[in-house]
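@channel sequence for tomorrow's demo:
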Amino acid sequence: MDQKIIVRGGRRLKGRVRVNGAKNAALAILCGATLAGENVVLDNVPNITDVQHIIQVLSFLGARVVWWREDAVTISVPSLTVREAPYDLVKKLRASNLLLGPLLARCGEVRIPLPGGCNIGARPMDLHFKGLSALGAELSLEKGYICAKAKRLRGAQVYLDFPSVGATENIMMAACLAEGQTLIQNAAKEPEVVDLANFLNSLGARIFGAGTDVIRIEGVKELGRPVHYSVIPDRIEAGTLMVAAVATRGEVEIEGVIPRHIQPLTAKLREMGAQIVEGEDVFYIKAPDELRPVNVKTMPYPGFPTDMQSQVMALLSTVPGTSLIVENIYENRFQVAQELRRMGAQIKVEGRVAVVEGVPRLYGAQVRATDLRAGAALVIAGLMAEGETEVVGAEVIYRGYKDFEKRLARLGADLAAANGQEQFFALGEKSDPGRRNIPTYRE
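structure tokens (generated this afternoon):
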């Protein structure tokens, strides 16, 4: 049943907000914890639906996962009683494929359904297969399942045709328990890859070079040191909040940030005219009324992140002049353009290029969130729009953002969440009694 977020535009965001733990790092680390056995404690874990789903998969396989604090879990995997992940859970998120490497290394056999997740384009498993096969695994596709077996994994040299984050992480986790040395060339450099490597090293792995394009892994016999590890902040959540602040011409302080992780975005926002002051783990951002158009090209890290492209498209839709966006990662990332056009945006898409002609204002409309980042982008568009915007399918937003509308409300946004039965709770200062009976809720 569709969930909705109702946004009433026209308010500048102002105040202070802290960033949650990184979704993509937490998912990989939770999968990597299956290599450890017992005594793993993770802090700064975002309690979002994707994390809840991966925990359900781990529990089905025999892990014991307990939330002992709002953002912290303990994980114990003394044995894996099941080696086949359930389709009804795996279909809900892409990150379930990250169980392939660690379960193969620990159990020698695993059967996982082809993963689900957002419909943002082809995300093939060929590079995962290539790397794991080089380590000695036998892989096949059988009736929608990935089947993998390996009597013994042995170190190998793997060259990735594309610096895939998932493939890098899967191969790295499998190689931790492989015999000998593994080299991953043209490896992904994303901060989430580095965070996973740091976590695995804290368990006793020997991984070198994470964050560069060559990662070396010296296999060990087992992992299992007691670990208390904190997940890095979510650079995409931080970027989304920054874009929302600029979009509303607001003034926001964002805490718990690692500035170097989002330098490509901050460079573009400064190019647009935003004032950004960086501290050790904080950003102060203030936007002028008049912004300048920019061109954006998504690339693997340290390039501009594809996960920020939709939000920036929404922002650029009201910036005078012509902006160009080139999407080099996922071919379906431009689905949000059609929804923004319903709000009055002038966006022309040709293949992997979008031409955005800034308009004076957007207008509230009913729009649909086609994926996680598109949903966030449409909420941002609603914050800029005149009138009321209804974002349908908002449940996808909660896959990656914890308390998204509440956190925006604390910054002064006027918005509400609703379930499919039209039960609302308002988060703005006041409701519109002539439209619906929405009670006021204040944090």
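heads up for whoever presents: The chain is about 30% helix and 25% strand.
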